[in-house]
Task: inverse folding
């Protein structure tokens, strides 16, 4: 079984995933727009939504991060990403600093990346797309617990 994170955006999924691809030096495996969907799917896609992303998949190491823009056919308005953070565990101080600083570009740092009682580095931020992240590099004794 694999557990993956699936994010919903409000028309800026493509921009977000191109940004994450650079931040994580990751492989963008899929990026399909609503306008590329076969007609037989039965959804009427408004012209202004044809370039919005129906599905994106980014491989970060052996994990997947997936997303789409809010469906143009959804009766519910987009309300942002709420109530969750994506936790990233890294293997070095340098990797923690690199990823934290990349994601923090034009974002909001909630807790600066610093040493804590459980981690060599831990920090929290909300990136420019409204996605909350926690970056963590465990201390060895905490990782073994």
Result:
């Amino acid at each position: 079984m694999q557990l993956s994170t699936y994010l919903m955006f409000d028309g800026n999924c493509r921009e977000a995933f191109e940004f994450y691809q650079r931040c994580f030096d990751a492989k963008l495996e899929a990026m399909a727009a609503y306008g590329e969907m076969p007609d037989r799917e039965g959804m009427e896609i408004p012209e202004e939504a044809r370039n919005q992303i129906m599905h994106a998949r980014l491989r970060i190491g052996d994990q997947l991060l997936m997303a789409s823009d809010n469906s143009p056919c959804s009766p519910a308005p987009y309300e942002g990403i709420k109530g969750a953070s994506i936790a990233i565990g890294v293997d070095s101080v340098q990797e923690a600093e690199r990823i934290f600083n990349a994601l923090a570009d034009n974002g909001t740092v909630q807790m600066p990346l610093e040493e804590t009682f459980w981690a060599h580095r831990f920090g929290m931020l909300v990136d420019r797309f409204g996605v909350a992240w926690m970056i963590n590099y465990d201390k060895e004794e905490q990782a073994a617990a």
Notes: The two ends are 24 Å apart (CA to CA). The CA atoms of residues 139 and 145 lie 10 Å apart.
